[in-house]
């Protein structure tokens, strides 16, 4: 399926649902956006305080590529040269830079994405003048490598994938990601791997695409989810060496640089935060998944059990995942979620719930009561 006028670019459904829930006359458990409800690391707060007390000279423009301390920590953790790292305004800008680079190499060409897909990928493609081809995932929610291979052509500029995945929760195998890089290379295209949920791998199988060490792979991510700081807007991209200058030029023209205090705080958090911080969050998510899916069982729903990230897709008999039905759930059940149709056709009958709330039990009870009563 090729989109020439993608709805994701024309109409941001996330905002429509968020605003509808905010205007509701009743209490609503909000399970729409992936903004964490957990406490950020203590070192992040301390780093921000330390920065605020620093010399005003440090309040001026940072290097366009990012603070040296932050870039060096990223490079060390990811096993790449520091020169390949560009600190960005969240994963959103990192992803944009990667997709823009891909389309610059082959102007007017197509971008292959999965279906379902995080809707901003098709939106960015359309904004950048490219064409979107959606490739349905396999029955288990994992990327269908052979279908991607069949869809690819000389017109393919990029294959964009997200693992762990939003919205399916699938964690793609290293072999599948390597095969996608091969497909991209066969057509002189880039593989853009969005790994923003890498710290939320619940399967133990996740492996970064950077381990492939390919010159046609760009990895994008951010600290928004892993440190619980979506408002800080600190992410990064790791480019092949020959693409760095073009990415930095575009980044400078659009943003000049990334917020210096936010970068300083993240650098402090990376330096001081132990692995147990991330494990405790994963433990919390495992509990929420168990509680929420148990209630979905009680409601007679079909659902996905995430291998990573923090999203659950559910299908209720006779209640397709339309915007109208999502609004009905807000009004009548007091639970806000995203329509599956916002992510494509493959799961358009489903509804996506985000588990970034400590009211998961309450939401689950409301859903069970609503559908049992219906």
Seen as an oligomer or otherwise, the chain set is: single chain
The CATH C-level name of the largest domain is: Alpha Beta
In percent, how helical is the residue content?
A: 40-55%
**The CATH superfamily title of the largest domain:** Type I PLP-dependent aspartate aminotransferase-like (Major domain)
End-to-end distance:
35 Å
Calculate Rg over CA atoms: 20 Å
Strand ordering within the main sheet: 1-5-4-6-7-8-9-3
CATH topology value of the largest domain: Aspartate Aminotransferase, domain 2
**Mean pLDDT, rounded to whole units?**
93
Identify the CATH architecture of the largest domain.
Answer: 3-Layer(aba) Sandwich
User: How many beta-strand segments?
Assistant: 14
Shape: globular
The succession of helices and strands, N to C, reads: EHHEHHEHEHEHEHEEEHHHEEHEEEH
Number of contiguous helices: 13
In terms of DSSP E residues, the strand content is 15-25%
Structural class: alpha/beta
How many separate domains?
A: 2
Largest sheet: 8 strands, mixed
Low-confidence stretches: 1-6
EC number: 2.6.1.-
Keywords: Aminotransferase, Pyridoxal phosphate, Transferase
InterPro entries: Aminotransferase_I/II_large, AspAT/PAT-like, NHTrfase_class1_PyrdxlP-BS, PyrdxlP-dep_Trfase, PyrdxlP-dep_Trfase_major, PyrdxlP-dep_Trfase_small
Cofactor: pyridoxal 5'-phosphate
């Amino acid at each position: 399926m090729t989109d020439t006028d993608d709805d994701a670019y024309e109409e941001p459904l996330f905002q429509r649902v968020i605003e509808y829930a905010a205007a509701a006359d009743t209490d609503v458990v909000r399970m729409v956006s992936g903004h964490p409800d957990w406490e950020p690391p203590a070192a992040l707060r301390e780093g921000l305080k330390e920065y605020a007390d620093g010399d005003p000279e440090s309040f001026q423009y940072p290097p366009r590529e990012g603070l040296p301390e932050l870039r060096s920590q990223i490079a060390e953790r990811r096993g790449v040269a520091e020169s390949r790292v560009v600190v960005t305004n969240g994963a959103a800008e990192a992803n944009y830079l990667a997709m823009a680079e891909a389309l610059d190499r082959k102007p007017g060409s197509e971008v292959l994405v999965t279906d379902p897909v995080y809707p901003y990928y098709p939106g960015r493609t359309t904004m950048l003048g490219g064409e979107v081809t959606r490739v349905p995932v396999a029955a288990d929610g994992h990327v269908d490598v052979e279908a991607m291979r069949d869809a690819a052509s000389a017109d393919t500029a990029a294959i964009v994938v997200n693992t762990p995945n939003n919205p399916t929760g699938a964690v793609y195998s290293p072999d599948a990601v390597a095969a996608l890089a091969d497909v991209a290379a066969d057509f002189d295209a880039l593989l853009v791997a969005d790994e923003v949920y890498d710290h939320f791998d619940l399967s133990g199988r996740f492996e970064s695409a950077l381990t492939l060490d390919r010159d046609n792979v760009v990895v994008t991510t951010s600290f928004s989810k892993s440190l619980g700081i979506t408002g800080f807007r600190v992410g990064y991209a790791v480019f092949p060496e020959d693409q760095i200058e073009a990415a930095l030029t575009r980044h400078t023209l659009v943003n000049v640089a990334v917020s210096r205090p936010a970068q300083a705080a993240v650098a402090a958090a990376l330096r001081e935060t132990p692995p147990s911080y991330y494990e405790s969050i994963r433990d919390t998510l495992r509990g929420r998944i168990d509680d929420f899916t148990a209630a979905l069982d009680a409601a007679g729903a079909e659902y996905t059990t995430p291998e990573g990230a923090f999203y659950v897709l559910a299908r209720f008999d006779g209640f397709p995942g339309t915007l109208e039905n999502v609004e009905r759930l807000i009004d009548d059940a007091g639970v806000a979620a995203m329509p599956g149709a916002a992510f494509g056709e493959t799961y358009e009958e489903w509804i996506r719930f985000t588990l970034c709330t400590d009211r998961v039990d309450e939401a689950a009870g409301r859903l069970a009561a609503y559908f049992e009563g219906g």
